[in-house]
Amino acid sequence: MCLGVPGRVVEVEGLNATVDFWGVRRQVRLDIVDQAVAPGDYILNHVGFAIRRIPAEEIGETLALYETLLDQARRDDLMAADVRNEIEATGRGNDDAAS
Amino acid sequence: MPLPRIDAAAREIKFRNPELARRLSSRIAELTAEIGRSPVSVMHVCGSHEQAIARWGLRATFPRDLNVIMGPGCPVCITDMPEVDEGVALARQGVVIATYGDMVKVPGTVMSLAGAQAEGADIRVVYSAGQAVELARAESKEVVFFATGFETTAVATAAVLRGPVPPNFSVLSAHKYIPPVMEIVAEMPETRVEGFLAAGHAATITGWGIFEPFVQRHRIPVVVAGFEPLDILSGLARLIELVRDGTPRVVNMFPRCVTREGNRRAQEELWSVFRPVGGRWRGIAHVPNGNLRLTDAWAHLDARRRFTIDLAGLWDYAPATLAADCICGNIMSGIASPTDCTLFGKECVPDTPVGACMVSSEGTCKIWHQYGGIPNLGDMA
Amino acid sequence: MKTLGLALDHVTLKQGAGGRAMRALIEDVFLKDLPAPPARGIGAAAMDDGAALWLGDRYLVVTTDSHVVHPVFFPGGDIGRLSICGTVNDLAMMGATEVLALTCAVVLEEGYPRAELERIQSSIRKACREAGAAIVTGDTKVMGRGEIDGIVLNTTGIGLTERVVTDCGLAPGDRIVVTGAIGDHGLAIMAARHALALEGELASDVAPLNGLVRAALDAAGGAITAMKDPTRGGLSSALHEMAEKSRVGIVLEERAIPVHDAVRAAGDLLGIDPLHVANEGKAVMGVRPEAVDRVLEALRAHPLGREARAVGVCVAERPGSIVLDTGFGRRLLAEPEGEPLPRIC
């Protein structure tokens, strides 16, 4: 349970949601999640409470985040050291989502 | 209404693409080599991270020069003996103790809750604070929820306490708060930790902003990471990149769940029910603001105020000398690893644990032992 | 400290759970000072699924089991079905797929509902029919209220076979084959027992395997080198025993091991590894590499073997150890310690 497994909301009744975890369903409480949750949404579950609504578009963004790390690696390989230094001096590009 | 077939996005939410993982592992190796020192040490502070690393066998893919240390991130392991004693004493006083499975075998000064159970005490394993409340409804005796876990779990306890609870229910809080202990570890003279991987779930609640003062003070980068294999690998890759560049920053690699401010609603619930106090963490001595206790507004549900806990009756024994050889504290601070301990795998095994690290499923020693005592298969002959 | 070095003067629950602790209890208490094993055959000291006694032209295989499952009725079956299938399967694991006879003894707690008993009896009859086996004798006892928990069943089975398949015959190069999806029974029970409020598709896989095993043995000839049913302690326990006794190492490919989605999800939620929980309708076999394809074909042609897969290989290195290739890395698969408890932080 500590692993905070993501699941998909099937039904919502007040502060209670029925969530499907890929074949197994559980009741999950919505007392502490900070966004409105509707059937079809993904939530992150922790000891029986939803702690976050995971917007569907974030999934794509996360995958892009992984790729960016690897893109950076490719770019590094292709450049000579002096070109790299020049880029660093002018500041980084668009890598991080929030920092 | 039947659930639609799992779509590709849903599968992706599990973030378990092995090909991507291989590339990230290579990236980690490259970055470590670029740093050129050995070892490069980074620390995570979450039992769930260690569990995931061990379960997926990720250590076998880490380069030799990279040291990924588990710090004091196992909430059960750092529950100090006197706290366990409180639970045991209450149990012996006739109270029903409801607690998470992991807590049952943690050794106290004299015995664990399991030991008390063998002597006739009523100990019940529950999976949530809510379940403990339901238990109390069905019982006539007093039921005390022995609550362990870090802030993420404390939020759940808080939410339950703010709802209706029967009069025979109360909470013995052994909840802990992680950020203060990162300070302690960063300030320990033996520390060689160059970067921290922060727990994604705790950060979902607290937000990543709370790490900024830490980074300013200690000039050590912090990366917030999730728990899927790709989350961990990409989090580590980003962290080592920051170490390579000497850039002390907070980077959020778990944006699908973590924002700068976190979950304000959950924070309000948490801090209305709990307040941080200084306390001992097993093996780590005093952690300022590291323990969560119930606020005065919730005194009526605080087991420490409802009952007089008789600890004197327990302490007839002097702790055995074997416990003196236990280096859980050093292991939890990341200074030693289980294989450095003379007791590991011999006197101290899950059946007969000496230290809490061997009891909890998130304890470093338990995890290493569970996965054969050799977390990095590269070490096998 | 009291909790240390507990040389165990009392039996603990862990010793019934099928792992190392249970084997230690058996070795220390039950196998001490046993008479010499049969000159030809397999006796108690081998701790195999059953015993095999040489009759002159064939082996008589005999096995016995007591059943104390709770809850008594669970999704997919009940204690009656479990008892019959358990014994039929133990015989089959030794190669005795034609069941000569079964016995069934029952110990009941005073006050046990008649209707439940009849339901269990009906399950027993159905399972016997499926296995082509018959109960020829039994025993009934009733104990006072509170002196026993509900119902305990004991079943003994006998069968004949010309060739005994042991659990210690693995050799480097042999492939590991499982006859279907892993973890069904254990997780269904775990969910029901702990009233874990999981709705879903969890159901026990309890079934008699003698027909399936016959099909595999016929297809393989002598190329099935070892066999075991991964009951208590799961696939992990069974493979550890086989590897230990055969003195080989095993490398498993985690992503090849069939696990139903619901089982995996329940395992994730509860923090319980499907490889550590019981299966009651599956077998694990060691198969010579040249025979793997035809064994898989024979298994998949049978209704109980549709999801059969080759999941690993035996190696000469690290005898007794099981390495799990997770797809993301590699680690050791350790033996389960006692009864798995759902993991919570």
Note the main attributes of this structure.
heterotrimer, A: 99 residues, alpha+beta, SH3 type barrels, 2 domains, five-stranded antiparallel beta sheet, 2 helices, 5 strands, 33% helix, 30% strand, elongated, disordered C terminus, C: 345 residues, 60s Ribosomal Protein L30, Chain: A, Phosphoribosyl-aminoimidazole Synthetase, Chain A, domain 2, six-stranded mixed beta sheet, 8 helices, 16 strands, globular
Structure description:
The complex is a heterotrimer of chains A (99), B (381) and C (345). Chain A has helices spanning 56-78, 81-90; strands at residues 6-13, 16-20, 24-29, 42-46, 49-54. Chain A is of the alpha+beta class and 99 residues long. In chain A, a hairpin with a 3-residue loop joins strand 2 and strand 3. Chain A is elongated, with a radius of gyration of 20 Å. The two termini of chain A are 29 Å apart. The relative contact order of chain A is 0.14. Chain B has two domains: 35-316, Rossmann fold, CATH 3.40.50; 321-379, no CATH class. Chain B has 15 helices and eleven strands. Chain B has a five-stranded parallel sheet. In chain B, strands 4-3-5-6 form a four-stranded parallel sheet. A two-stranded antiparallel ribbon of chain B has the order 10-11. Mean pLDDT of chain B is 86; it is low at 1-6. Chain C is an alpha+beta fold and 345 residues long. Chain C has eight helices and 16 strands. The chains are: A alpha+beta (99), B alpha/beta (381), C alpha+beta (345). Chains in contact: A-B, A-C, B-C. Chains A and B meet through strand 1, strand 4, strand 5 and helix 1 of A and helix 1, helix 2, helix 3, helix 6 and helix 7 of B.
Summary, kept brief:
Chain A has helices at 56-78, 81-90; strands at residues 6-13, 16-20, 24-29, 42-46, 49-54. Chain A has 99 residues and is α+β, with helices and mostly antiparallel strands. Chain A has two domains: 6-54, SH3 type barrels; 58-90.
Element order of chain A: H for helix, E for strand? EEEEEHH
Tell me the CATH topology of the largest domain in chain B: Rossmann fold
How far is it from the N-terminal to the C-terminal residue of chain A, by CA?
29 Å
With helices defined by DSSP (H or I, 4 residues minimum), what is the helix count of chain A?
2
Rg value of chain B: 21 Å
